[in-house]
Amino acid sequence: MGGDEGVRVMMAGVALARHRHEGLRFTLFGDEARIKAALDNHPNLRAASEVVHASDVVSAGDKPSVAIRKKASSMSMAIAAVKAGEAGAAVSSGNTGALMAMAKLALRTMPGIDRPALAALLPTLGDNDVVMLDLGANTECDARNLVQFAVMGAAYARIAFDLERPRVRIMNIGTEDMKGTEEIRDAAAILRAATSLPLSFDGFTEGDKIGRGEADVIVSDGFSGNVALKTAEGTARFVTDLLRTAFTSSIRSKIGFLISKPAMHLLKHHLDPNNHNGAVFLGLNGVVVKSHGSANDKGVANAVHVAARLLEEDITRRIAADMAGVSALSGVASKQELAAK
Amino acid sequence: MGGDEGVRVMMAGVALARHRHEGLRFTLFGDEARIKAALDNHPNLRAASEVVHASDVVSAGDKPSVAIRKKASSMSMAIAAVKAGEAGAAVSSGNTGALMAMAKLALRTMPGIDRPALAALLPTLGDNDVVMLDLGANTECDARNLVQFAVMGAAYARIAFDLERPRVRIMNIGTEDMKGTEEIRDAAAILRAATSLPLSFDGFTEGDKIGRGEADVIVSDGFSGNVALKTAEGTARFVTDLLRTAFTSSIRSKIGFLISKPAMHLLKHHLDPNNHNGAVFLGLNGVVVKSHGSANDKGVANAVHVAARLLEEDITRRIAADMAGVSALSGVASKQELAAK
């Protein structure tokens, strides 16, 4: 959906992803006429796609309770296709709250998982990105939720970064054991005891260390995770805005800018949110990826790539297997918690 | 304290502040010999100072419960001087948790305030900085706490930015009324009803809008406030690190950097945390300011300036007067809350 321009960008992005994943086939839900018009520019994609008309539209302002009744919307139909086994994964750039509500209702939460979480990759100065979750699906979280997020995030990191035992940390306001809420300290105690899980729990981290490359997964409740994500985005934009102002402040600095252009391009590439587009709802019986509403074709291609990778590596099965390890250890963990009190 | 170098930087900073606030007098608590040696370079400051030896040291790793027993530490003695009325304000660059615990214990919370909060100024692209609070003093907060933070933050903003009615927003994970926790929504309802307060409550804001200049005060619980502050610091450093890498990636970009140096200096000045050094504990019967442990002389001078301004403008009295307005309105607010449910 999203008007002529929105459909064009979406199709261009899917066409890019099609080049990267030759085997994929696509079902494109939305305004049939607009999609078909946009596909004229992408014969390769057209050959691998089926177009299905969606007569309803979920708008950005729709409350989730209103949106879930729109069964003929593109996001509802895409999720229904995943549920029916006709599609492996759904990718949407629509209203996040609506997408989350529909996905939960239709696909249900996985056995062993109490609540799904929204996860995304963020850039670091290290060898790989970092998986952050939850980014806003759950305003308040207990220790069980946080432990489950750790397991799900680690499963994602193993796929995304090809690691055996991703380094997991919990976001806190200090790194000492006594810092933070009871929920956080309890989750840390459980993870410390669960040594057989395919992850290395390294304790707490703080907001200023997200991009340092010291962790492969950072776990937080959805409120502070959302605040951290948006603050990072806002600050990156703030600094680049200042940089632009500085470079246009004099003739001399404008000349300097022209000479430094390749360097600035490198910076821009690193900070371009399109390179990290595609947030995943982890913990559902099916893969659902949210693409940012303002993503360009490269960004959309990234979101489709994320969905394809999680599907190829069967993330749902991996999480289920890992959660079995947590259940077996929960008796030990509880004793640890009691001992810590 | 903080070794020879720490004392030298602290004294150089206080000397700078002495130039800006001619009338101020200082009592300098710490290692007497080191302080006196450092004062040799600042005869002006020496003439306006008294040195008092502190035989105890609070270290960075001391738990608050251990630190509060160190009565002969510089931070404990400085706070005791405020309590005794011998000093108007205390400034320290020591352990934040210890300083907070000592200040609460000795100075007590103001009438009408349940919990003090840590507030600081952050840079924006607007006309003035923004007051953010709480930055970590209170891990969990209820609606009453958040309302009190709003009143205290507004009192600070009126002094720092010379405004009549600062624009106050609450940090949330969306700007719609239904977003966030119950505590946040209740606090918003109370502030919306309290129209006679000397502030303009403008609803919610999000992490990506902290630096936009759309609010003069941003209120949050101490957990997400701390996450936001540290994420902003970490991201600014991340971007400038990338920038440095980009500029040293080729001969061409190095030349560009040399030419752009004045522009880069402008950027560095804007992002230098020393220009925003000095976090205040608001809500105590006395002014206590925390200077960052890694601040340079300009940073220390800023922290002293913050303390001096709050003292000159009598922030404690202002907050007390404003809180009377909230109490008178609390009946109305409760009805509003009920109506909203």
UniProtKB/TrEMBL annotation, chains A, B:
It is found in: Cytoplasm. The keyword Lipid metabolism applies. This is Phosphate acyltransferase. Catalyzes the reversible formation of acyl-phosphate (acyl-PO(4)) from acyl-[acyl-carrier-protein] (acyl-ACP). This enzyme utilizes acyl-ACP as fatty acyl donor, but not acyl-CoA. It catalyses: a fatty acyl-[ACP] + phosphate = an acyl phosphate + holo-[ACP]. Its EC number is 2.3.1.274. GO terms for molecular function: phosphate:acyl-[acyl carrier protein] acyltransferase activity. The keyword Acyltransferase applies. Belongs to the PlsX family. It comes from the Bacteria. Gene3D superfamilies: Isopropylmalate Dehydrogenase. It comes from Sphingobium agri. Its main location: cytoplasm. Pathway: Lipid metabolism; phospholipid metabolism. InterPro entries: FA_synthesis, Phospholipid_synth_PlsX-like.
